[in-house]
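Re: Re: ligand-bound prediction request (bumping)

Still looking for help on this. To restate: I need the protein modeled with adenosine-5'-diphosphate bound, output as structure tokens. Inputs repeated here so nobody has to scroll up.
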Amino acid sequence: MQKLIALLSRLDGRGYKAYKSITGRYDFGDFALCVEHVQGDPFAAPSRFRVCLPSRTAGFPPELWENVSRRVGLEHYLAEQFAAQARRFSRRRGTGHSGEIRIDAPGQQMLPRTAVRVGAEGVEARFTVGLPAAGRRILAREAIALLTEDVPIVVRSSLRAAAVDLPSARRYALTAEDADFLRSRLDSLGLVAFVADGAILPRRSGVDDCPLPNGVPFRSPPSLRAEMHLPNAGVVTGMGIPRGVTLIVGGGFHGKSTLLNALALGIYNHKPDDGRERVVSHPATVKIRAEDGRSVAGVNISGFISDLPLGRDTAFFSTENASGSTSQAAVIMEALELGAQVLLVDEDTAATNFMIRDRRMQALVPKEHEPITPFIDRVRQLYAERGVSTVLVLGGSGDYLDVADTVIGMVEYEPHDLTERARAVAAQFPTGRESEADSPLLLTPRAPEPQSLNPARGKKPLVVKARGLDGLTWGREDVDLRALEQIVHPSQVRAIGLAWAYALERGYFDGTRPLRAALELVLHEVEERGWEALGRFRDPPGDLAAVRLLEIGAALNRLRSLKVRPTE
Ligand code: ADP
Ligand code: MG
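Reply:
Sorry for the wait, this slipped through. Here it is.
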């Protein structure tokens, strides 16, 4: 630390670039501070730092990090603590970002991240600091106070067992472990999702992921109730959603979409007091929606749409501007190609003509003039032939009662098992419609062409930037991610871009290897070396979070320049 103080003192009043000389590792006694990358000027992205606390300083009992589930929960807690302390000590100490201390703060979902890592060696945290300057002149005294007083307080008060609230840290670890356990049990129970009694599903608002205060707690219908024995919380009960085709029906504003959204995010573990800690779904659950206007690259949508006007090919369908129904068909085929096992569809965001064609429409418009085979005629086949389950929110079309295994009715936010009644209604009022699925549902895996993925912009060989959750800047292009509702943190967006770059550089995208296989190679690397493996610099990045192959691929499918070749 004295060495750093001496170095900084000599820099006072000099040009900002002179800060580069402090790059290196400094011993602060109980921890080490690494200055990994120094920003070029006070307005540039702040400088990257890392601290390492040996286990004797950090002092977290091994039981809090001895398995991956618990470790991720603890790491989430520590990142939150660091972020809270950083906010307290961050203040303007000059021009631009001068004086800022920041860590990649997590949201409601406990994801593996690169910001804080706990292990046998101790605790490591990656964060950024805005090195102080007046104009472009170095403010040494400010820098010394920031780096040798404030940053150490932030570190010591947030990353040591002696300083944090250990029972809280423990709750995070055990909550994560219980959720992972629950999810791992789904398959053997024949379920695709589980929603615990007492869960709070609604959120405060469309832009606030915190639980709605006074939300009505979830209560399972007795006939769908399952009992689970969790390693930490003991016995919990809740609603199990069986494999197959499940319909969620009910009046408008009775909580159907809220339930479906909770299932969509049940692929993640939620932090304590989120309300969704024990809402889990199959890890390969994908929310599907219509996205008119998106681009589509060479998807075989012939199972849903054939004989388009002007003889357009739907076995290798590309467009710059998909319609509601063609986009939804493409989204489903892409999800299947990437390995989706459970599809979630909400009437609020589906194309009606894709979902259903009723008896009267069948009579009025003959099949020869209708390119669409509606989803209702494929949904059972998806389950029978591919084992892919579907959960649908549908308040508007009773035709689906014929194809549902389970029907859940939402009444004032409370689910009821309407399966038996739905069968009776279906028998009493036959729809008279005929199935239009007279062809197999063909899936053609695609291989991305590497030349179509250009990450460069100007002189920069690689530009990957998250624009919040909504978009990814890749080279000269902006990819619209707004339809990917299962992306929950900007750090996942960065990880998506870096995963593409990784696949490209290693030649995994070679024009013949299928998209899914190429991404599996990347994720295999991540499994071995952590998300840090995707970093661009010698020093690992602190702002990446885990994201599924399903999102990495789904985002790529929305890159407008993407070109693919069919592999069969
Ligand atoms: P639907 O899809 O059936 O029309 P939504 O799921 O959109 O209904 O819910 C309608 C409103 O009710 C939303 O504002 C939502 O936040 C709220 N809501 C949903 N579930 C609950 C609940 N359990 N307790 C309180 N409010 C809820
Ligand atoms: Mg709705």
